[in-house]
Amino acid sequence: MLRKYGLLAIALGIVALYLFPLYWMYVTALKSGTEIFANPPTLWPHDPQIRIVEVWNRLRMDVYLRNSFLIAGGVTVIVAALGTGCAYVLARIRNRWMDAVLFAVLMMQVLPSSLMITPIFVAFNQMGLLDTPRLAVVLAQAAKVLPLYIVLVRASFLQVPRELEEAALVDGNSRIGAFISIIVPLARNGIMVSSVLIFLQSFGEYVYSRSLISERALQPATVGLQSFMGPNSSDWAGVMTYSAIYITPILIVFVLLQRKIVSGLTSGALK
Amino acid sequence: MTCQISLDRINKYYGAYHALRDVSLQIDQGQFVALVGPSGCGKSTLLRTIAGLEGITDGTITIAGEDVTHLAPRARDLAMVFQSYALYPHMTVRRNLTYSMRLKRRTRAEIDHAVTEITRITGLEGLLERYPRELSGGQRQRVAMGRAIIRDPKAFLFDEPLSNLDAALRVHMRAEIRKLHNRLGATSVYVTHDQIEAMTMADHVVVLRAGRVEQQGAPLDLYDRPVNRFVAGFIGSPAMNFIPATVTPDGGHVSLELPGQPVLRFGGRRPAGEAVMVGLRPEHLQTGPSPDAANRLTLPVAMIERTGAQSYVVCDTVPEVMVSAPVRVEDTDEIVLGIDPAQLHLFAPDEAGLRLDI
């Protein structure tokens, strides 16, 4: 009994530690300027102020968020279009060469953005891609997250029994037809969950956008936020409100997604 | 009878592994053929090559006179029932049944008519809007059958369709599939590892081992005249007893390598002194009074297995001898067995174990 509650207490403590920055963001967003710098700090604002509309207008968040959506959406479309077929092939054809390919795909995942940005910048500059900087970021980010998508979706293709595809072939469908009408619908959960993860990751992308997009009107929200945090900035409430506006939709999507993952795991009874 | 499916010297390699060796097979229109053999013998592979799901290394496959060796599965017009049924889990029973028709862009009226017909044949009334996960094993089996029948294909292929069902349902579905075959008269190829299924359902049984056809023919021909020891041991349940023996100097009897037993007459001639393997089916060892008083064995009893419908006496000998006995056989230490010379098989004692002509 004691052991059970002890473990629970430790778990709660760790969760609290992890979630504290999130809590602090929301609380600071509600505090007044003087209360933010109060010492000792207050854990709950005495006089909560909601500044969403003001910050939204002053920091031109509509432009930034539109850019974020464009970039994340573009990345997701490209990755889903290219990665689904690739994941399927890697799931169906099993031999030594495919193992090597899979290993190479995983290796690409290891390279960090900050390492890749210099060669990417030089290459994109030469190719003239920097004239369309958002497209440049979409391509760079798609290349970065494609391996992750392939690995995740491949796992869900592996769960679709081969016999279903063979039944479709014997029933008179072509390979591509069987893939679209049988395999993809059955791996739908995995594809959806992976796509949302890719979208969220790209929504929070910073390094490529920061380096490739110089024009403020084309920058996504992550870079936009950073540009308001100079050494002279003291508008912490504004910055935190900005962050809250930016993060809350992601949090909601993530909570919903969590349920989808769990239900996807339990309803996997294909037989 | 026209030949519906013809396989001519099929060979298949997986890398260096020789999965099918010179398999040739003629299947007539309307015939029910069973491919049977122990696991790994290539029976499923053979079926999949007919379906076009596996390519072959060498040989020719002809269906209804057309060379289909290099055609895709969909161009072969065959229907297949899989071991796991392979029902599309995201489609209702109705959509499962009509999948192939929808692919062929049949009209709504045609499809509805076919569905009505099939549900009547398979007894799936009232289940059309259900999903496969909401069905019992037997119902799924029927949907899988219905999905095949609705195609009206050139032939049906069955890949161990009953092995996922429990014993009672298996016997029931066995009869149902056979009845369906009698009614539709469609050419069928049926893969099973269960020789009873093969014997009871098929007109023509093909016994495979290690990718090779060991023997093919009518079920009772295989039972009565197995060409080698493998087929003899595989067909029939419980399996045939094999006892090493030597032909006596007169050439008409065998002396079993069982201590203290008289020589047995086998109703023919073999060279004197030849080493042979005597094959005796448990059901051919007659307990009680024998017509031929001279051909008798008296064996010690190790135990008696009573299944209810039949009892088996296991004799305390090396090798062990199994005897089918009357249901109410009494406990005894010794059993006297009469042997009909016509039901005594002789095989070569070597690895191949070919049948010896008597």
Question: Explain this structure to me?
Answer:
The complex is a heterodimer of chains A (271) and B (358). Chain A is mostly helical and 271 residues long. Chain A has a single domain, classed as MetI-like fold. Chain A has helices at residues 2-30, 33-36, 52-58, 61-92, 96-110, 113-127, 133-158, 162-170, 175-186, 188-203, 207-212, 221-227, 236-266. The longest helix of chain A has 32 residues, at 61-92. In chain A, 30% of the residues are buried. With 358 residues, chain B is an alpha+beta fold. Chain B contains 8 helices and 20 strands. Chain B has helices at 43-51, 93-103, 108-122, 137-149, 167-184, 195-201, 219-224, 229-234, and strands at residues 3-14, 17-28, 32-36, 58-63, 66-67, 78-81, 155-159, 188-192, 204-209, 212-217, 241-247, 253-256, 264-265, 275-280, 285-287, 296-306, 311-315, 321-325, 334-339, 345-347. Chain A binds chain B through residues 161, 163-164, 166-174, 177, 182, 185-186, 269-271, and chain B through 51-53, 72-74, 78-80, 82-84, 86, 88-90, 99-100, 103-104, 133, 147, 151, 157.
Output the keywords.
heterodimer; A: mainly alpha; MetI-like fold; B: alpha+beta; Rossmann fold; 2 domains; 32% strand
- The total domain count of chain A is 1
Judging from the principal axes of the Cα atoms, what is the shape of chain B? elongated
From the 3D structure, determine the CATH topology of chain A.
MetI-like fold
The name of the CATH superfamily of chain A reads MetI-like
Can you tell me the residue ranges of chain B where pLDDT is under 50 for at least 5 consecutive residues? none
Poorly predicted tracts of residues of chain A: 265-271
Question: Structural class, from helix and strand content of chain B?
Answer: alpha+beta
**Helix content range of chain B:** 10-25%
How much of the polypeptide of chain A forms β-strand, as a percent range? under 5%
By DSSP (H or I, 4+ residues per run), the number of helices of chain A equals: 13
Q: Percent range for helical residues of chain A?
A: over 70%
Instruction: Report how far apart the termini of chain B are.
Output: 34 Å
Structural class of chain A: mainly alpha
Q: Sheet bearing the most strands of chain A, described?
A: none
Q: Helix and strand string of chain B, N-terminal first?
A: EEEHEEEHHHEHEHEEHHEEEEEEEEEE
